[in-house]
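TA notes. Do not distribute before section.
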Amino acid sequence: MAGFCFLDKEIMTESVKYLLDESRMPKSWYNLVADLPTPPPPVLHPGTLQPIGPDDLAPLFPRSLIQQEVSTEREIEIPEPVRDIYRQWRPTPLYRARRLEKALGTPARIYYKYEGVSPAGSHKPNTAVAQAFYNREAGIKRIATETGAGQWGSSLAFAGALFGIEVQVFMVRVSYQQKPYRRALMETYGARCVASPSEETACGRAILAQRPDHPGSLGIAISEAVEVAAQRDDTKYALGSVLNHVLLHQTVVGLESMAQLEMAGDYPDVIVACTGGGSNFAGIAFPFIGAQLRGGQRVRIVAIEPAACPTLTRGPYAYDFGDTAHLTPLTKMHTLGSTFTPPGFHAGGLRYHGMAPLVSHVKELGLIEARAYHQLSCFEAGVLFARVEGILPAPEANHAVKGAIDEALRCKEEGISRAILFNLCGHGHFDMQAYMDYFAGKLTDQSYDEAELAMALSGLPSVTAA
C-alpha cells in the first residue's frame, strides 16, 4: 500500500518492552552499605573533624531520613503512602532498543530503563515523594532546596503539592536562564523558584558583590538553601542527589530492572548511567553491585560524566564541603573543590563539584569505572537515539546514551554479543532550546578553567582523619 512503511518482520515480532504489574513494584529500597567489603568513611564535623551524630543533622533533616542516611540495614521498607504515589508511574518500562541495535549494526543487546514517564519527567520523584512524605510526617511545613537543570526542583515541587508542603527552590542561574519551562513547571506545581546566587541570602549577596554576573553553581545553590533552612524551625532542607538516603530511594530503578531482565531472559554484562551527583547512577547500578558482592554475576559498571565537570575522572578522593559557603559537613568524595564553578554547558544536572560519597567509595573499591564526554558527541548520540527509538533524552541522559552506544560499537568491533543496560533517566521535552542550539551550531565543547580548578583544589580542607 503506497504511503506506508512496514518495519522489518524481525523487529515487529520480538518484544521491545517489558512491563511489571504494580503488584511487583519493590516493597523495600536496597541499601548497598550492607554488602560493602569495607564501610564508607565517616562524615565529619568541620569544626572538630570528628564523625557527626544525628543531632548535627537535625536542623536540616527529619529524624527518619537521618536514620536512613546512617543505616546499615540491607532493606528499608517503602511506606505505603509513598508506594501509593509511586503507582502513578511505577513500575517504569524497560525497553529493548532493537532499532538502535540495527542502526549501529551491533550484536549487542541494548536495554534501557525509562524514567521519563514520571509526572515530572525524570527519576527524581522517586526520592522527592519519599522526602516530602517523611517531612510531612515530622510536621514540616516548608522545604528549601536547590536545583541544577530543574529536574529535581520540579520533582520536589510536585511532591510538595501532594503533601501540602511549601517549596522554595534556588535554581542555578545559568539553568534558570536556559530552561524557563522547568521554572514554569515548578511554579505550576506551586513552588517558588529563585535564580541562584540571589539577594535573598547572605551567601548569595556575598557572591554577587564579588561577581554580579555569576552564572551560579550547585554548590552555591546548596549553600543558599541550607542557609534558609537553618534559619527557620518550620523549614527543612532536601537534596536531590549525593546523600545516602537519596541514593537509597532511587534503587527502585535497579530492583525493577532486575525483575524485567528476568522476564527478558537476560542479565546485563555492562551497565551505563550518567553521573552528576550520583542518584540515577546509584539507582540503576547499586542493586546489581550488591548482587555481585553477594556472589552473583560480575557486571561492568560505567559512570559517564561531562568532560567540562569531570568529578570522577579528574577530581581527587578527598574530604570536602558539599557547598560553596561551607555550611555543610565534610564528606569524603571525588571532588573538584567546593569553590569550583563549571562552565555553563546544557547538562545542568551534571554541573556539581562533588560526587556522592557512596559512589566515590565504590569507585575507590574498583567496583565501577568512569568515563568523561564532551557535550557535542552526547547530543549527537541523543539525536540518533531519538530518530530510531522515538524518545528525546534530556541533555544529562544523552551522556548515558553515548556511553551505551560506545559499548555497543565495542561489541561490534570485537564480534561479541553483550547485554548493555542503561538508565534513560529523563526526557528532553523541556530542553528544546538546547537541541535548537545544537542544530544551529551554537553549542561548543566547553572546557573548565585549569587555573580555577587548581585554585579550588588548593582550598580543600586539611583532614588527616579517616
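Switch to the second chain here.
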Amino acid sequence: MTSVQVDKHNAGNEAVSDPAEGGEGYKRGLGSRQIQMIAIGGAIGTGLFLGAGKGISKAGPSLILAYAIAGLVIFFIMRALGELLMYRPVSGSFSEYAREFIGPFAGFVTGWTYWLFWVITGMTEVTAAATYMTYWWDIPQWVSALVFTVILYGANLISVKLFGELEFWFSMVKVTAIIGMILICAGILTLGFSDAGDTASVTHLWDQGGFFPHGIGNTLMTLQMVMFAFLAVELVGVTAGESKDPKKVLPKAINTVPWRIAVFYVGALIMILSVVPWTNFQPGVSPFVAAFEKMGLAAGAGIVNFVVLTAALSSCNSGMYSTGRMLRDLALNGQGPSFFTKLTKNGLPLIGTTVSAAMMLVGVWINYQWPGEAFNYVVSFATISGMWAWIVILICQIRYRLKSDRGLLPKSEFRAPGGIWASGFSLAFIAMVIVLMGIDKDARVSLYAAPVWGAVLGVSYFFLRKRNPQSAAFAKRS
C-alpha cells in the first residue's frame, strides 16, 4: 500500500457522512467505557482464577516474576498492535495486516486460525460454564450449555452495543473480585484480622525455600501457562471497526496494559502469597479458594465459582463477537464463502455468528460424548493458534515500521516504544515459550496439531486460488 493509496483511503473515510458508520459497514457502537473493560477483561480469565494454583505449586513465589516478564512482552505486543491500528483501524485486524505486510496466504491462515481459536475456546468455555452451574443446582450440563449459547448468540445479534455492555459487566465482576481480594489481604497484613492474621507476612515470599524454591528451570517451565493466561488480550484489535473514535479510545485502552497486569496478576499474587504460604497451594485448586479457606471465609468457594462462571461466559461472548467478524473479513477478501459478507440492518454479521455459534454447540456435544483425551487434544490446539495472532502482529509491526521509516507509508500516531527491537525481543520470547511447550509432555500435543492444521489450510488455499485467483490478491481497502 503506497502513500498515495493511503491518502485515497483516508479521503474515502472523510467522505462518510454518518460518523456512526464504520468503514466496513459496521456500526460504531462501542464507547470508551466498554473498550476499556474489554481490554481489561481480555487479560483476566480462568488462567488466573483457576490455573494459577498449578503454577504456584511448580514455581513458588517466583511465579510472580514469570507474570511480570510475560506481562512486559504482552505490553510490547499490544503496543505493536496499537501502532498498526492507528495506521489503519479495521475490524479484520490481524488478518488484514497479515495480507498487507506478509502476503495473502498469511492473511488466509491468520483469519481462519483465529476463527478456529475462538470456536474451540467457545466450546470449552460454554462447557465449563455449564459445569460451574452444577455447584448450585443439579442441572444437566447440556441444558445450561444450550441456554448460555442461545442467550449470548441472541445478544450478539441485537447490537454491538449490547455485546459491549455484557463484556463491561462480565469484566466488572472479575475486576471487583481481584480488587476485593487485594484489599482483604492488605487488611490482614496490616491489621491482622481473620484466621490468617497471626501468620500473614510478606516474608512468605522468600522464607519457604526461597524465591525460587524449585529452581529457575521450573520457573521457566511455567512461562507457557503464564502466556496462555493472557490469550485474548489482543481482542481489542478486532473492535477497531466498531469503536467510537478509535484513534482516541484504542491507544488509551492499550496503555492500560502495564498497570492492569501489575495490579491484577503481580499485585494479586504478591498479596495472596503473603497471606498464605505458597506451600499451601496445589494444582487443580484455585489460589483464591485456598486463600479464602485460610482466612476462614466459608463463602469463598461460592464467590470464586461465580467469578469463574462470568469469566467463562465472557470468553464465550467474545468468541461469538470475533468469529463472525473474522469470517466476514475472509469473505470480503475472497478467502471465505461470499454469504459471510452479509450484515443485518444493525450492521452485524448474522451468518458468520450463526455458523460459529452452531460450531460451539457441536463442541459441547463432542465433549459430552468423548470427555477424555480426544477432546483435550483438540482443545490444546487453542493455545498455539492464539499465539499465532501475536506472532503475526509482531512481524507486521516490524515490516510496517521499516516501511514507514523509509517514507513508503505514513507514520502511525501511536508508535510502539522500542520499535522493531521490542518486537524482535517479543518474537524471541514466544519462540522460547514454544520450545518449552515441546519439552513439556502435557503441552507438546499443541505442537503436533499445528502442522496438521497448517497442511489443511495449505491444501485449501491451493484449491481456492485455482477457483478464485482474486483470493491471492492483497487486502482490499475499506
